[in-house]
Structure formats: structure tokens, C-alpha cells
Amino acid sequence: MAWAFYVEHYTNTTQACRDNKYTWRHANGSIFIGTGEDAGNDAEPLGIFYPRGATLGGSTQVNGMCFTLPPDSQWDELATLTGDSSWNSTRHGFDGYIHPGLRDVLGSVYEALGQSKPNSTADLINRVGRDMNRLDPTRYDHSDLYTMVIDQNADHVRTGARDYIIDTLQATYANGSRRYPGLTISTQSFATKVLFANKTTGPARPRATGVEYILKLSGIGPREELEQHNIPVVVDLPAVGQNLQDTYEGGITVEAAQDFTTLFTNCTFGNPGDPCLAEFQLNHTGPYTIGSAWAALLFRSSVATTPDTDIYAYGASASIFSGFYEGYAEAQAPPSTFWWSLVKMRPQGRGSVTLRSADPFDTPVINFDYFANEGGVHDLQALTDAVEFLLPAMNNTAGGYAPFTIIAPEPSVSIEQGIKDFAFGHHCTGTCAMGPANSSSSCVDSQLRVLGVDGLRVVDASVFQEAMGAFPVLPTFMLSQKAAGVILGDL
Ligand SMILES: Cc1cc2nc3c(=O)[nH]c(=O)nc-3n(C[C@H](O)[C@H](O)[C@H](O)COP(=O)(O)OP(=O)(O)OC[C@H]3O[C@@H](n4cnc5c(N)ncnc54)[C@H](O)[C@@H]3O)c2cc1C
């Protein structure tokens, strides 16, 4: 169902090894997860676990279901960048949902935002429950609290790309005949390269005739890198594999002076006799109808580059989310825990994806180069601002929860160092960026056509020149919908 990639967060190996989520393999094949200090001399560095969905529906089948519309300004910027006004902003929206047990903690965050504390649970639900994806172009223009939106259907079951594909496959006309009889889905298939034919008419450009996967292995990419691996160059396209970015997440984890009671208090998370699972399976009701994080905060850092807020923080009590390593989903937290994940929107840092070899079954070298260069320094400052805003706000929490013991960012080092040691991501985008055809940073044009060849389009999260909002799924769905229209328009 999922592939286990390992990526590098840092080019600086000393910094990379400070992360206690780093994975190593010992000579005897055993796996160790922890900092370099503790890994042992025979340990080979694998990197940071980076899962990706490998099933119908892709990563939407294994993801956290956070479903957020990016700021309208980002679609408008794409329109300006490509000169194609059809990318101008469009809109969508869902209803929110909140568990009232968060009132005390969120009350102090409201105060830190300069707003009044909710005067009742109903008031909190009313204020936090506003739709974050509402039809309002100003929804990102100030710091405020929301409820997280997740992509689920009326039965509170995960929904998305997989269901859409299956519904399309099974669609029928009124007489029962299949609507798309020529459509098949090939599962258990691994594509290895794009096949090209030389055209006999028109300009002499290679034309894709079939897809066996990725661009570089098919000869589309930076010439020097392709030649290093003896891959015949079809098109020298330097943008392929560049501009890698992640809406990386710094985090706050604290332990309160007393336990939180939440909807999940009696759940055993799939272990035998789980009453919450039984309720969900029987009635599609109960705690498992909501996501693990309920609170969402839009926050403007001191380095925001546009009028939009640039940090999306989501959090919850009595649980924990500290990033990815094998077994991360099993992590259990004491009921006194509260965590915030701080997502950097519009990250300025950039990494790359390069070939390890010409073997399509070999994973590429993926290095996000976190917090490097001017862009990375900007990102680190934005995350630091969010930590500096939230920690004092948390410590003003009423109801006996404060003072909090800080677990992350690690209090024995500076906030910046603590963020560096903790940060993680799972929203990679940008390695085949859409842009003007005459720019060396572009990989596809505004019609998603790969530059320099005919008959080949890229339709996935890699075409976003800049990470869209905090979470890529909704913008990727919007992109796919638009691509369908563009492709049909060409027929
Ligand atoms: C654990 C996790 C949690 C996440 N949480 C969220 C979240 O809460 N909200 C959010 O918005 N985003 C989240 N994301 C990210 C989001 O799911 C992805 O960014 C998004 O699905 C990317 O869409 P995509 O179409 O570009 O790629 P994917 O959804 O990854 O789809 C790629 C598909 O291509 C297939 N494929 C790849 N190579 C080949 C090949 N050679 N041959 C055949 N098939 C191939 C894969 O199997 C997969 O099915 C999360 C991701 C993960 C892994």
C-alpha cells in the first residue's frame, strides 16, 4: 500500500544526524532509529523515513486527510507566472467540526491573538467551526483559529482520488451500459520510462507514445546528470528534479500539569476490544469520525512575503505527532500531552531529486536541504516566530493545565536549533514546475505539457512552482480537474 522512501533533510551531515528520527542499518541488517551519536560504528545511514502511497489513489489513501484550500493569491500568481489567466483562483468549501475539550488551551491562544476568550463551549464551536475553506478571498489575511477540515464522505470514511477513479470506471448510462468502456486501470504495474516515436510530419520533436514513467529515466532532464548515467538525452530540461520543496513542519510538544480528557480517552486505536472502532464500524459515529487534530491556527510570521498568513499550525491534546520514522503511526502519548505542528506555507528553501542510477527500481537521491541559504533562513525565522507566539500563549492556559513542560523544541538548545533537529515534511512538490516556456526553471507549460516534447503531460503535485497553501491534496485535486478540461479541450 505504501512505499518507504528515505530522504535527506540536510546536506550538512552533522545536522542531519542530530534528528532522532534518522534511520540507520547495522551490518547485521537490523534497523536503528535515533541520532548519529547512538547509531554505532557499523551503522549505514539510510535517511529520514518518507512514506508515499503506492496504491490506487496514491498518497491520498495513506495521508492525514487534511483538506485545505490554499490562498487564492497562489492561483492568481500561477496565472501571472504563466500568462495563462485560466489559472486564476477558484473556490470550494466544507463545514468544520470541533471537540469542545480544547476550550481552555484555545482560549489563551485567542487572547494572544488579541481576541476575547470564548465565553462558552457553544461560542468556541461557533468561532472555531467557521469553514476554513469558505468562499472568501480574505480568509488567509489575518491570524485566527479554525477547525481542521478533513476529506471524508457522509459516512465519515476517507474519500478522494481512489473513489473518484472507481466511480468513473463503474459509471453507466441509464440503460446500464458502461459509460467509459475503453477505460481500464492497471494496478500492480510499475512504469519505468516514457516511450517516444520520431514524428514524420510537423516540427521534428520527439512524441511520447506510451508511459513507462519518469522523466529523467526517459531522457528528459539536465543533460549533465543524464549523461553521467549513460541515459540518452531526449530533451535537455534543467528544471526536472530541481525546485524540490516541502511545507516543512516544526513542532511544539508539551506536557500539561494535568491530563486532558478528549473524545479519544477510551479508544485503544485498533487494539482488541476498541470501543471506538466498534462504534465506527457499527454506526459510523464516535471519535473515529474526526481527524486526530482539531484545532487549526493561521498565523502571520514576521517574515511573511505576501499579505497572506504564512504559518498553518494544527494541534490536539492527548496525542502526539513528531514526524516520520518506521512505526510512527503506533506512537502513543500520555493524556497530558498537547502538540502543535507548525507548517511553513510558501517555504522558500529548495532541494533536489537526482538519479542514484539508471535503474528505475533504484530510489533517487532526495535532499530537501532544509533551512539552507537565504530561503531556508527565512523559513526558520517564520517557524521560530510561531513557536515564540504559541509557547507563552499555551502557558497562559487556565483550568490547571499550565505550566507546561516543554518536550519540543528541545529546551536545552536554542529554539532555532530545536526546530532544525525536529522538523519534518511529507508534502513534497515542485520538481517539474509549471512556468513560461522560455524559462530555464520551467518543466511544463500552463497546459501541463512537458517542454520540448509532444504528447506528454505531467499532472501531479510536482508541477506547482511554489507549494500551494499548507496541504497539497486539495490543490492537486483542483489541478487534476483542470487538467481533465485542458486535455479534453485538445481532442
Ligand atoms: C503519511 C502522509 C500524510 C499526508 N498527509 C496529508 C494531509 O493530511 N493533507 C494533504 O493535503 N496532504 C497530505 N499528504 C501529501 C499528499 O497526500 C500528497 O502530496 C498528494 O497525494 C500528492 O499527489 P500526487 O498525485 O502528486 O502523488 P501521489 O498521491 O503520491 O500519487 C502518485 C501515484 O503514482 C504511483 N506511481 C509512482 N511511481 C510509479 C511508477 N513508476 N509506476 C506506476 N505507478 C507509480 C504511486 O503508486 C501513486 O499511486 C500526506 C502524505 C503522506 C505520505
From TrEMBL:
SUPFAM superfamilies linked to this entry: FAD-linked reductases, C-terminal domain (SSF54373), FAD/NAD(P)-binding domain (SSF51905)
Boundaries of every Glucose-methanol-choline oxidoreductase C-terminal domain copy: 347-479
InterPro entries listed in its UniProt record: FAD/NAD-bd_sf, GMC_OxRdtase, GMC_OxRtase_C
Family membership noted in the UniProt record: Belongs to the GMC oxidoreductase family.
Protein name: Glucose-methanol-choline oxidoreductase C-terminal domain-containing protein
Record organism: Zasmidium cellare
